[in-house]
């Protein structure tokens, strides 16, 4: 009985690791083309914080810049109540171009971030696997260089999010706002 339980747990872990490896990364990723200002158009997640805060979320801006050592400095500015809040994150490059790691100093969660697909001047689809002591979750972001994006790109975001096992109620096209848009550096 004990051996059966261990083998089932081993298979479940192997399945989870395999699922993580099936998330693609943009072929021939060109990091310098990823830099600049983006708008967060869509967000999908099966995390508890997303379920709790989903009704409050609005479009925000994200500025990506490269560091001297090849990592990415990611600064998001978003409306929170009647203020604008900034969050800075350092995405550390991995051996695989287009794949990054980040550890949240606030929550201790580990993030495996992949630029799934982008054409650099219109949109970017980014998937993140998040692991922490209480479990793991998936997050998919849709970035755009403008506040508007074609229905085809929006549909691709929804389709990809579903492919990652996210349900329709876990997928959100962020409501547009002008709040905090000018504050992005």
From TrEMBL:
Keyword terms, alphabetized: Cytoplasm, Disulfide bond, Endoplasmic reticulum, Fatty acid biosynthesis, Fatty acid metabolism, Glycoprotein, Golgi apparatus, Isomerase, Lipid biosynthesis, Lipid metabolism, Mast cell degranulation, Membrane, Nucleus, Prostaglandin biosynthesis, Prostaglandin metabolism, Secreted, Signal, Transport
Subcellular location(s) of the protein: Cytoplasm, Perinuclear region; Golgi apparatus; Nucleus membrane; Rough endoplasmic reticulum
Record's keyword annotation contains Secreted: yes
CC terms in the record's Gene Ontology section: extracellular space; Golgi apparatus; nuclear membrane; perinuclear region of cytoplasm; rough endoplasmic reticulum
E.C. code: 5.3.99.2
Sequence intervals crossing the membrane: none
Lipocalin/cytosolic fatty-acid binding domain: residues covered: 35-178
Primary residence: cytoplasm
InterPro entries: Calycin, Lipocalin, Lipocln_cytosolic_FA-bd_dom
Pfam families on file: Lipocalin (PF00061)
Keyword Disulfide bond among record annotations: yes
Catalysed reactions, as listed in the record: prostaglandin H2 = prostaglandin D2
Gene3D superfamilies cross-referenced by the UniProt entry: 2.40.128.20
Origin: domain of life: Eukaryota
One GO MF term attached to the UniProt entry: prostaglandin-D synthase activity
GO annotation, biological process: mast cell degranulation; prostaglandin biosynthetic process
Signal peptide annotation: 1-19
Subunit structure as annotated in this protein's UniProt entry: Monomer.
Protein family per UniProt: Belongs to the calycin superfamily. Lipocalin family.
Protein name: Prostaglandin-H2 D-isomerase
Annotated source species: Jacana jacana (Wattled jacana)
Organism phylogeny: Eukaryota, Metazoa, Chordata, Craniata, Vertebrata
